[in-house]
Amino acid sequence: MAGTSVAHFYDELADDYHLIYADWDASIRRQGNALDALIGRDRAVVLDCSCGIGTQAIGLALRGHGVTGTDISPRAAARAAREAADRSLSLRTAAADMRRLPFPDGRFDTVVCADNSLPHLLTEHDVRAALAEMRRVLRPAGLLLVSTRPYDELLRDRPASTPPQVHRVADSGERTVTFQLWHWHWHDDGKHYDLEHFQLLPAGGEWRVQVRRTTYWALARDRLADLAAEAGFIGLAWRMPQETGFFQPLLVARTGA
């Protein structure tokens, strides 16, 4: 992964990221509740190592967990801290690469890496490095929760785009439109694809168009599970959205006792 380019993508998106949701606060609560049910205990010490602007981290803090958030985007991590403070929550955040987590061994009960963040890492070497770091900072019998897009189905269907999402801004009532173009003309290796993220934002009766580009690895579920097993995780299982209430498939695994 070109870390600087991914950081730039999310730095640019940080101020507007909440606009991809019809109701960001409702999504925070819904995702936090779904992850809390998988954690299955009170007051866990949680690292969200791809916290973005705080959707999952704030949701888990609302459930009473002690959450630390890191993200490769300094602007996103800083916004997550502000959003948590605005809700009278404690959320420590820092800019950090998930391949080099700035924490001692065995620091956390649970590590969350959600919202298709891991596939920004474009090589097996980098994914292994990130998973090894997640395992390192977990306590014995610690819990790993990783969510990705449903790549097995997407690899089969090869969609060209996502449907446009049209939402109204809460304070102004103006509309925003968000969609993605997925360039399924693969890179030469057949494993990676480019994405263009479009946001149409109201601007004085006109539209202001923001286009941001990034690259992902379409990482199939079996391959990700194999890489997690190589990193030392056990009890690996994929849990689907219809079962968990979370919006993406979740790989659930643990460290050894």
UniProtKB/TrEMBL annotation:
Superkingdom of source: Bacteria
Cleaved signal peptide residues: none
Originating organism: Streptomyces tuirus
Gene3D superfamilies according to UniProt: Vaccinia Virus protein VP39 (3.40.50.150)
GO biological process: methylation
InterPro entries cross-referenced by the UniProt entry: Methyltransf_25 (IPR041698), SAM-dependent_MTases_sf (IPR029063)
Methyltransferase domain span: 46-142
A Pfam family this chain is assigned to: Methyltransf_25
Record's keyword terms, sorted: Methyltransferase, Transferase
Name the record gives this protein: Class I SAM-dependent methyltransferase
Recorded GO MF terms: methyltransferase activity
